Amino acid sequence: xxxxxxxxxxxxxxxxxxxxxxxxxxxxxxxxxxxxxxxxxxxxxxxxxxxxxxxxxxxxxxxxxxxxxxxxxxxxxxxxxxxxxxxxxxxxxxxxxxxxxxxxxxxxxxxxxxxxxxxxxxxxxxxxxxxxxxxxxxxxxxxxxxxxxxxxxxxxxxxxxxxxxxxxxxxxxxxxxxxxxxxxxxxxxxxxxxxxxxxxxxxxxxxxxxxxxxxxxxxxxxxxxxxxxxxxxxxxxxxxxxxxxxxxxxxxxxxxxxxxxxxxxxxxxxxxxxxxxxxxxxxxxxxxxxxxxxxxxxxxxxxxxxxxxxxxxxxxxx
Length: 318
What we know:
Elements: E1 11-15, H1 20-30, E2 37-41, E3 47-51, E4 59-63, H2 70-86, E5 91-96, H3 115-126, E6 130-134, E7 149-152, H4 155-163, E8 170-174, H5 180-190, E9 194-203, E10 206-213, E11 220-228, H6 232-243, E12 248-256, H7 262-267, E13 271-277, E14 291-294, H8 297-308
Parallel strand pairs: 1-4, 4-5, 5-6, 6-7, 8-9, 8-11, 11-12, 12-13, 13-14
Antiparallel strand pairs: 2-3, 9-10
């Protein structure tokens, strides 16, 4: 139960099926209870949602990561938005810790869809007033929306965890060129240098480490990425770092998709510890000893409170 009551009853928080544990934590941190609704399916698989309390004139925040099963969770979210709109909610704010389809953000080949743009269109057409997201795979996805976007970052949370370990000689490593900005942010917080893995990806979910740019010899290397999916990139990078003289390798990411062979690869890799957040809930079979989970509940609840009270959220990036 919440330890204190939030002063504005017009703020309501609802959870769908993707991450109810995180949603409960967020509601408790705000000082409110989760809104009453049921999400079920008809016998043919169609989603049915019933909102069991009045939301008329309220500012509603819906917690839903579009993680596995991605399409099911997207449909739940779209139907919930429609239900809230028809129930006369004043604003419908989508809190999406993990944004599915974010990696399909451009046309890399002829006749490819830009699916992250399609998801943005669907959310807006359904009636979303605002979207709060955490560590988009491509920050420019914010430009796909014509409603306000609040883009939170996980680097401070991950950095604080490693800072408490008091490593002596650290290097922050980006597993590819696209993650250099993220690695630089962590390096600045930990006052450490960076290195870059130069790799080639011949096809989706297959990567090949080519070279290491930067001095990693004898150092504790911390690999940082936004998403770990099949773990091919991160485990090849860790093995390459050890082979090239790193003392030990830690890894971290915001979104632990961890599909297919990911857990086996991580367990058999040179990674000493993988630190993730709970934007995507870890199933029991994925909770191995090497994986440490941090909560983004406090960060998101503070963002919701600040948005509702019309305060700046940029202080959350410090």
